[in-house]
Amino acid sequence: MNLRAIAGGGKAVGTGTADATDAPDTADTESGVAPDRTVRVATTAATGALLAAGALHVVWVFSPWPLKSWGDFAATLVGVDESQRPSGPETLAVAGVLGTAAGLVLTGSRPTSNRWAGSWPVRAGMWTVAGVLGARGLGGFAVSGLSLGDAPAVFRHWDLRLYSPICVTLGGLTGYVALRTRRRRRAA
Question: Which of 22, 38, 138, 139 gives the lowest tally of CB atoms within 10 Å of its CB?
Answer without folding.
Answer: 22
